[in-house]
Structures are given as C-alpha cells and as structure tokens.
Amino acid sequence: MNDMTPSREQREAALEGMGCKRKRVEDIRFTQGKGKYVDDIKMPGMLHGDFVRSPYAHAKVTKIDATEALKIPGVIAVLTAEDLKGVNLAWMPTLAGDVQMVLADGKVLYQNQEVAFVVAEDRYIADDAIQLIEVEYEELPVLVDPFKSMDPDAPVLRPDLEGKMEGAHGPRKHHNHIFNWSVGDEDATDKAFAEAEVTVKEMISYHRTHPSPLETCQCLASMDKVNGELTLYGTFQAPHVIRTVASLLSTIPEHKIHVIAPDVGGGFGNKVGAYPGYICSIVASIVTGQPVKWVEDRMENLSTTSFARDYHMTTEIAAKKDGTVTGLKVHVLGDHGGFDACADPSKWPAGFFNIVTGSYDFPVAHLSVDGVYTNKAPGGVAYRCSFRVTEAAYCIERGMDVLAQKLGMDPADLRLKNFIKAEQFPYNSALGWEYDSGDYHTAMHKAMDAIDYRGLREEQKAKQEAFKRGETREIMGIGVCFFTEIVGAGPSKNCDILGVAMFDSAEIRIHPTGSVISRMGSKSQGQGHETTWAQIIATEIGIPAADIMVEEGDTDTAPYGLGTYGSRSTPVAGAAIALAARKIRAKAQMIAAHMLEVSEFDLEWDIDGFQVKGNPEARKSMKEIAWAAYNAPPPGIEPGLEAVSYYDPPNMTYPFGAYFCVMDIDVDTGVAKTRRFYALDDCGTRINPMIIEGQVHGGLTEAFAIAMGQEISYDEMGNVMGASFMDFFLPTAVETPHWETDHTVTPSPHHPIGAKGVGESPNVGGVPAFSNAVNDAFGFLGSTHIQMPHDAWRVWQVAKNLGAHG
Amino acid sequence: MIPGEFIYHRPSSVAEAVSLLVSHGDEARPLAGGHSLIPMMKLRMAAPEHLIDLSGVADLKGMQEVGDTIVIGAMTTQHELVNSDLLIAKLPIIRETSLMIADPQIRYMGTIGGNVANGDPGNDLPGLMQCLNAVYVLAGPDGEREVAARDFYEAAYFTALAPEELVTAVKIPTPPAGHGFAYEKLKRKVGDYATAAAAVLVTMSGDTVSSCSVALTNVADTPLYAAQASEILNGSTLDADTVTRAVAAAEAITMPAADGRGPAEYRTKMAGVMLERALARAAERAKG
C-alpha cells in the first residue's frame, strides 16, 4: 500500500455509519425555510375548505341554512352531513373500531365539532361565509366528568349505538360505556393482596393534553375525474394506511390513489388518525372537480384533532414489609370523548397499557380498563409515546413512590430491590409481555452515582429541617423514575391497524456509480430519518451515507409500510433496512468473488468492500462492485443491485432508562424550578448519538410541559379551556430546564442491529420524574399524592392545604 | 383565525388620523403595534371596517425630557423604551417592566401608546403608569386634553378615551435621582400576561420612606393604583408589620378573575407576594 491509501479508520470515518454523530442532512432545508410542507403546495384552480363548528358541547342540530353564505361571490359549496350521506361518508370508521361523524349528523358531541364544510376560492371568503351560515342548536345536558358517565341518569351521548350492547371490544355495560379490557390473573392477584403485609392504593390521574405539533393537520385533495385518480397531499404519519383507508371508503382502487406526505412539521401522534378535514376535502374535490385544501388553525388543532391521555388510574400495590412487591392491581377509567378514536393497534383498546408492571418483578398482576364517552373531543393518541405506555409508566412510577413512602423506604432503594434482574431476560411479565433485554441495576447505579443521589438526599433532609425552623421558604424534591417502554409495533401475530399487519419495509437501489436511493414505509416528521437510515445502510453496505438518498412519504414510490409513531421506525423499518442491505451485500459478495476470481467463501467483509481472507490487498470496494453489478455481472446472475425487505418483527423492543429530577419549590408562589435533570437512556444500539440526544431533549421538554402545566381542560358546560398557546403551556427555551443525558447500551437480541428506538422514552420517563419530584418535595409535610399538572397555582394550593403558609 | 374585510388607512399626521376617526366613527379603530387588535380581528371578536395605521405619523415618535417631565410619543415601541439612554438614566423601571412584556419580536412592534390605550388589564404599562403618576395626552376633534393614568381606566377595554380620540403621548414626572424601583411579575411563561404583578417606586431618607407609590397589574378589570398601601408605607421604615399591613391593603383592592393562571384567591395572594418582593428590591435600590 502506498501513502495515499486511506487507513481503515479513514475508510470507516468516510462512511459516517452507525454510531457517528452525523449532522442532520434535512436541517439544511429546514433551517433555511426551504422545507416543502402541505401548505406550500399550490395547484391550479385550488379551492379552500373551512369548517363551521359547534359552539356547544352537546346539542341537537335542528337546522343548517347556508342560503346567505352561498350568495357571497367566491363561495363554491357548503357541505353538510346530508350531502355526505349521498356518498356514504357522513360517518367514518375510527382506528378503535368505533364510528365517528364526519359532519354533525343531527347532533354534536363536543365543542368545535365539525358541522358544515365551506368550500371557497380563498380562505378569507370561506371564513366570511362561515359567519353567514345559520345553524340552529337545541342544547342537551352536558357530560364532562368521566366518573359520572355511567351514572344511571347520565345523558345518552350516542343514540346511534342504542341497543348495541356488544362493542368492538366486547360487551358494553352502559349507554356511555365503550369497552372493558381485562388482563392478568385476578384471583391470584386478589390472593396476593389478601396475604400482603403492606398495601397501598391511590387514584392517579393523567390529565388530558395534546401533542400540538408546530404544523397543524392539513391536506390537499385533487380528484382527476378523467382518469379517476385521487391525489392526496397531507400531514400523514402513516401515508400508506391513509391510502388503504381512502380506497376502502371511497371505492377508488388503491392504485389510483396517490397519497403523498411531504415534509411534516412534527406529529407526536397527532397525525396518525383520519380527520373530518381529510374526508371533506376529498369529497369536495370530487364534487367540484377542483383541488381542495384544508388547513387547520391552532385552536382547531388543540380543540378537535386528537387529545392525548385522560386516564384515571386506581393503582394498588401489595408488598412485604421489606419492600418486595407481591402484586399489582390497576383499574383505569379512560375518558375517550364523544367517539372512540384512539390510535392504537386495533386489538388493543387500551394500547399496551399492560406494560404497567414496569421494570419490576411482580409475580402477579391484574389490569382492568373501562373506556367511556363524554362530551369532549375524540382522540386518545400516543403523544410521543407508544400506545398508552406513558400513562402506564406514570401509573407504576408514581405508585412505587407511594409504596416507598408508606414503607419509609428510599424510592431508589425500593426500585433496586424489585428490578427484574439482568439474568431474568428474556422476562415474561405477569401481564403477558416478553421483555427482550435489560440491565436495570447497572443503569440505575450509574445514574445514582452520576447525580450523587445519596448526597442530594442529605441536602434535602437539611433543607427540610431549615424549612421547619422557618429559615427558608423553599423546599426540595428529588424525582426518581425508572421506566421500561414497549415499542416497535409490531408483530403481526398481535398488531394490526384495521386488519393491516404492522410490518414495515425498505427498498434500496444501488446505482452503477455506487450512489444509492432508498425508500421506506416509515415517514419522518422531524425524527431525522434521512440522516439515520443512510447511516444504517452505510455501515451495512459500505457506501458513504452522503451518497445515500432517503425518500419517504410517497405511496407511489415507497414500499408499503405502517408509518412512524410509537417509536416503531427503528425497531421495524430500521430492521427492514438492515435486512434489505444484507441482501445487497450477499449479492455483492458473489460479484466480488467473480471479480477477484476466488470463491465467495474466501471473501470477508471489511468496512466498505470485500477482501480475500489472509490477503486484504486483494479487495473490491462496494463502488467497484456496483459498477460490475450492472455492467459485468457474473455469468448466470441477473444485472442490477437492489433489494426490498419487509420486516415482521418477532417481538417488541423494550427500551428503558433512569431519570432523576431535582427541583426547588417556592411555597409562597408555587413556582417550581428544576435545578437538575439527568436522563440515562438505554435504547440498545445507538445509530446516531447526536440525534438521540436531540430526541431526548425534545421529549423531555414535552414531559416538562405536560407535568408542569400543559392541559386541555373543560368547564362544566363542556367549553374547552386553553385551546390557544396563550393558555396551553408550550415552554420556550427560557422556561425549559437544562438537560443532562447519559446512556448504557443493552442491545435488543432479536433486532438485526440491536436497536430499540428512543424517540418516546423521554416523554414516557420524563413525566413521572417531574411529578415525583413535586410529590417528593411535599412528602415530608404529609402529602401522599398530588395530581398533575403541577402548575404554580396548584402547587401553591397544595402548600396551602398542607399548612405551609403558616 | 381569518379577519373580515376592512379598509386600511395610513395617515401622516395626528390631525389627519383624528379626522379619519371622526368621519368613520365606531367603524374605525386606530392601529398601533397591533398585538392586541390584530388577534382580536383574526378571531372576529373585533371587526373594524376602517383600520387607521398610526405608524406613518412621525409626531407620535420619540422621547424627551421637558423640565421635570419625561414625554414619550405614543408610537414609541417597547424595544425603544428598553434601549433608551434617557429612560435608563432617569426612569429605569420602564426598562425593567418593558423587558417583561411578551418577547423581543413583540416588543419591536408593540408601542407604549397602544399598550396604555387599549385598556387590557393584562398589559403591564398601565399599572406602571399609575405607579409613576403619568398623564396621557389625548388628541381629538376639539384639540388636546390630558387625563391622569390613575383616572383613565374604567373597566376592561373601557377607558376615558373617546372613540374619535387618540393617545398621542405619555408624560411622566421625573422621579428624584436615587429613587428605588421594582416591577415584579409572576407569569407562567415568556409572553404571558401577569398572574399578578406589582410596580413600586420609593424614595428613602435614611431608613425612612419619604415617598412611595404602588400599583398592581392584572388583578382586577383595570390596573390598580394602591393608594392606601402607598399611604401606609409612606413615612415608615418598612418594618415587617407595616409591610404586612400594606400588603393586606393592596390585596384588599384586588378583584381578579379566575383563569388558567389560577383561581382568584391565588392571584390576590400573588399580588401581595409580588408587592412584598418589589418593595424589598426597591428599598434595597433606594438605600444603595
């Protein structure tokens, strides 16, 4: 070799493969305002749609009169439920097995529900027309409190379900009951509680909030009546599913529907489902023959498309006096709003809430979830979490703290005592999951050492004494959280969406010069797939990431996949990418053998090419092989170098982490200041540490928001409160704490590259860490559980009730 | 979030602006920085048919000291308030308060005149102007008149300003050199209106308060000049008992609404806490 030959290290670095802190390639356009979002797309003759919405939470709609509105020049049409009935689209199926009104069909079930759809030449005209549409309402009694939903005299919200006592998930026991879902061994759990030395019980609520992505939901539908083809641009996290559903609903053949999700400005679960705006835009385009765009405004987004959480979790833990847990019993009351539009895999009415045993070795457990209707917006999406996993993590992590307090044990020690041990993996949980891998003790000890946990407890003790002596008005809380996630939905044996199995896919095509185009069934909304997918391919096939283009979101070109949510992209699409790349490498090996005139078994892979074993100077780089693949393939082998892989995962993946929050609370104002937040994540193999860090920062910021004040609440009339950024807490950089990140690496044994997914861990683990910190601060004054959100006035109220104001 | 139709006017003098207001009556609204009016129009809670943009009126800009009074033109932006050497030297509480209004982008547009004239109890400058005993100069069809900030506010969005009048300037008596001051604002996040806020101006003679003025923001449907609290503090040494009585007197005049910032009781108590903290900081500065 001469001096010009790059070293192995140089060749490795040139790939920018897995483990490299590669800068996000998509940011070049995003940071310059050059992204292409739905609202950037304009088509000739494009019309604009906008909704008339209900001011009432529960009312009969007795009359809709659009006469005056239709007189305005530029108003093309006004659609109502009656019009949609003509095409059988007044109602649409939800992902959860329910049906949902597209436009008010005789009544409305929540404030801001869609009542009529105005189509006009521009948005100003559409909004002018909305002001002139007369709708007569007859108000009905409003049901806001989920705990009153199944009272005998509770108002009937869904007359369409009258007499249907069998729902999508079994029997319904009341006219406002949606489902009951029970898992686990109830008798054995009851026995554990009967025999327990110590039990605790607490009703732990996780309030209603909203994912609030920067870009709201929007679409542009264009029906080409000549060719019978529908093009639908939209903010879709799962474009292929949207195409399939659109085909089933519209009866347009699937190959004549082109669904394209261009750049998407954040999703966090908000853009998984199908919304009335999509249906109405499509119908309006079919009716008018012109493209129709619909763009949600912020208030519409916050008040109608997809809330998250709203789970009320009665949690009981049985334990021995030494802290060993012996049983877990949880009952959840889930507030679903007017329709059950939860975005869960179809067989899972409460998502994967049965991960609620968390990181602990519970011998027995029982879970029962009741879903109910109320006069609130539908949704129940997984806001930056796998399905209902953040609720489950909050439930168990708060519950463990409640138990620690009762036992007088340190909450970190209680967790260490009950962790599933490294040698127990794969571990079968009492509620039916097989945890793939974990090393909880190592992670917890590393985290505790990093923040000097024992030292913080000493400081806290001293501060409590000083507070009692009246020397300070500040109290200190240390929030401990050790979460286990379940992500990567999922195996076809138990995961589907409306019958579509939850596999994912990748297609990789190597060009003769050795550059690459690759397409996936996933869809980035900011996650950085264009960067990280190229890194996986780079490592697997030895072509620099910079030479690999990643495309997602166009159903005409991308292989079928179930999209991006629930941290499923890396566990599922990421695996498909690695396997497609390995198919290419296998063919490349045959080609290299032919080029080097040796047997393929005499070759070994080395960074970016194949070399002869024992003679590394006899080698062919992947670029050389690519040229030969097209222009001089071995005899009997077809030209070309590309592969497609569809991946049906054998199991979920189970990322975990240890989070600690140190907080100082001013009892006189209720203002809580996060002094320190430390997050250790174990997401298995790490593809891009910088992107992981960014994901963790983003998820923690959302967790901070949710725990400390972000809320969609309703008054007793069902008026939605705080549906604007004036009241809906979206923290800025000023409020956001500083984040310290750390990691351990426990690869997934069943994933081709050992990766588990990380996007949602910080939201899942962050919320309990913040809430536990607030709770921990007040524990010494006699409080056992404080409901979220912990905004200043509520914290002040707690301090007042505990006598902290003298 | 789409406004209705309106006609846009851009007068170049106060007289021209007033004459537009006179000719269009209730259908016209003056536009200053627009951070209150434009969102209201987008929500269609305000639907003026004529929008009279004051940004072309040069006479409404600028700041100067005239004798013992500082005169600030109504269209002076909050960004300009923050960065004025004159105000930093003579009225530093204006900088301190203005820095707590919304965020830099809004302060580039938001004006002192718009902030005080709109009558929104959430705005920070009206309370401050009451604390400083400012006077607003109003121009109308019959010429100019002056109204004290302490007499200007009647209810939320209702003020002494007649529909055909404009606020053209704010006149503030220059406080004595060495005065102490503080604006304490509790808010949920950057950009939010106050949960409660307190403005304090104090002069000390040795350990004794020789003059004191207190006003509160966003704890009633108008800003509140806390006359009784100011009186209690005047002549005192700011001993704990006096401060407690002053805080109680200030809390007693609050009538906050319950909203996302908290229930009325909390906001009243926070007015007290903000006053206590502002007093301590202002006294520290006066002594320093």
TrEMBL record, chain A:
Oxidoreductase is among the record's keywords: yes
GO molecular function terms listed in the Swiss-Prot or TrEMBL record: anaerobic carbon-monoxide dehydrogenase activity; carbon-monoxide oxygenase activity; copper ion binding; iron ion binding; molybdenum ion binding
EC id: 1.2.5.3
Cofactors that this protein relies on: Cu(+); Mo-molybdopterin cytosine dinucleotide
Keywords (A to Z) from UniProt: Copper, Metal-binding, Molybdenum, Oxidoreductase
All copies of domain Aldehyde oxidase/xanthine dehydrogenase a/b hammerhead, residue ranges: 32-141
InterPro entries per UniProt: Ald_Oxase/Xan_DH_a/b, Ald_Oxase/Xan_DH_a/b_sf, Ald_Oxase/xanthine_DH-like, AldOxase/xan_DH_MoCoBD1, AldOxase/xan_DH_MoCoBD2, AldOxase/xan_DH_Mopterin-bd_sf, CO_Mo_DH_lsu
Gene3D superfamilies assigned to the protein according to its UniProt record, in alphabetical order: Aldehyde oxidase/xanthine dehydrogenase, a/b hammerhead (3.90.1170.50), Aldehyde oxidase/xanthine dehydrogenase, molybdopterin binding domain (3.30.365.10)
Catalytic activity: CO + a quinone + H2O = a quinol + CO2
Pfam families: Ald_Xan_dh_C, MoCoBD_1, MoCoBD_2
Quaternary structure note: Dimer of heterotrimers. Each heterotrimer consists of a large, a medium and a small subunit.
NCBIfam families, alphabetized: CO_dehy_Mo_lg
Purpose of the protein: Catalyzes the oxidation of carbon monoxide to carbon dioxide.
PANTHER family given in the database record: ALDEHYDE OXIDASE 1-RELATED, XANTHINE DEHYDROGENASE
Protein name: Carbon monoxide dehydrogenase large chain
Lineage: Bacteria, Pseudomonadati, Pseudomonadota, Alphaproteobacteria, Hyphomicrobiales
From TrEMBL, chain B:
Matching InterPro entries: CO_DH_flav_C (IPR005107), CO_DH_flav_C_dom_sf (IPR036683), Diverse_Substr_Oxidored (IPR051312), FAD-bd_PCMH (IPR016166), FAD-bd_PCMH-like_sf (IPR036318), FAD-bd_PCMH_sub1 (IPR016167), FAD-bd_PCMH_sub2 (IPR016169), Mopterin_DH_FAD-bd (IPR002346)
Domain FAD-binding PCMH-type: 1-177
Keyword list, A-Z: FAD, Flavoprotein, Oxidoreductase
PROSITE patterns per record: FAD_PCMH
Superkingdom of source: Bacteria
One Pfam family in the UniProt entry: FAD_binding_5
Claim: Cell membrane is one of the keywords in the record: no
Protein name as it appears in the record: Xanthine dehydrogenase family protein subunit M
Lineage: Bacteria, Pseudomonadati, Pseudomonadota, Alphaproteobacteria, Hyphomicrobiales
